[in-house]
Amino acid sequence: MTDLDLLGRFAVALGVGLLIGLQRQFALARPRRELALGVRTFALCAVSGFASALLSDAEGSPAVFAAVTAILGLMIAIGYFRETSSGRPGLTTRVAAVITLLLGALAAHGSLTLVSAIGVSATALLSFKGEMHRFARLLTREDLFAALKFALVSVVVLPVLPDRPVGAYPFDALNPYRIWLFVVLVSAIGFVGYALVKWKRADRGIALTGLVGGLASSTAVTFSFSGRSRTSPALSRLYASGVLLAWAVMFVRIGAVLAVVNPGLLEQCWPFLAVSSAAGLLVSGLLWRQPRKKASGRGVAFHNPFELGLSLKFGAVYAAVLLVMRVAQSRFGNSGLYATSVLSGLLDVDAIVLSTARIQQTAAGLTAASAAAAVALAALANTLFKMGVCWFSGSPEFRRAMFPGFLLIAAACIGQVFLLL
């Protein structure tokens, strides 16, 4: 390792120590109060870890690093017990100091990317103390059990499922591992949206509700805001803005799913996904610029998106869609696939998007262009269904505000179909 390489690694170690130290200094500093562990101390911890790791490597023995770690640990322990006796106990800053020492040592020989990632993550955890405590207070017992069940099916069940087709045609379209992986993927997306709603309680307004609601369920946002536009007609344009924002996020979500599942199909789909999302954002922004009254966005019926029964139903629906699409595409060609896309998209766009992405990877007769047309048809059908909800459930002003955005999104989907067919 050259001197230049060592200097680069030393700079990373020092930078991580300064970053964590600055956060602790900012979080704990009070007027005229001298901190036992401030920004300089954290920087020196990182430098000590770096230097002791190099010395241990030069000596061919971990004794130097072990001695430095023991001395620092003893000093931290003495300081902790002194603060405990004065009624001001706290381990967070001291644990951060130990992590900083270890990161300095890791920077000497390990991956600098990993060192930077751990350092930034540790700083973020230290900075979000209030937000994390508030989020923990918002959690219910049911939320905790739902999170544990999600971890169970994603970490324990998923790895043991066979990653191969279950049989001959048409069951060669069914791969247990991939089916459950898609279930986990969709559940994870909904889980993130639900966590954001719980964290912020949707108190930041209709826009935030529409934004995070598009991750959890754009249909739930559509149903809720449509009904509320009748009870609060003066806010109809704001509710329409929130719905269109949720729709825009839905198209971004489809793109994210395709990027993970079938990047080649995303290359065909991104034009209409981008145009549809941009149209929703544009009209939503125009509606939001009207004079508006204070609105909280409370009352949207968001429930924890991970329930084992619902996940099993989604897996069953997804597998059934795979079978139907396999048979339809085999016997009737692309016309059968398109009919299935429209019917499935009316209820749930995720299952048909995932199914199409999977079939396109395994079926020799299905081109990326035809699969992209099927995705566009599913998105169009889903948008038509939600617009029907808006038309029958919303106030007249709400319907008028929704219509331009709906037309632009529908035109983008239809244009994609005509370009590909």
Written account of the structure:
The chain is mostly helical and 421 residues long. It folds into two domains: 3-127, no CATH class; 139-420, no CATH class. 81% of the residues lie in helices and 0% in strands. It is built from 17 helices and no strands. The chain has helices spanning 3-28, 39-59, 63-85, 92-109, 112-127, 129-138, 141-160, 176-200, 206-216, 218-231, 236-261, 263-288, 308-332, 334-347, 349-362, 368-393, 396-420. Helix 8 (176-200) runs antiparallel to helix 9 (206-216).
> How many E-type strands?
0
Shape: globular
Q: How many structurally independent domains?
A: 2
Instruction: Report the structural category.
Output: mainly alpha
Q: How many strands, what sense, and barrel or not for the largest sheet?
A: none
- Give the helix level as a range of percent: over 70%
Hey, roughly how much beta strand do the residues contain? under 5%
Provide the low-confidence segments as ranges: 291-300
Radius of gyration, in angstroms, nearest whole number: 27 Å
Tell me, rounded to a whole number, the average pLDDT: 78
Separate helix tally: 17
Element-by-element helix/strand order: HHHHHHHHHHHHHHHHH
Distance between the termini: 58 Å
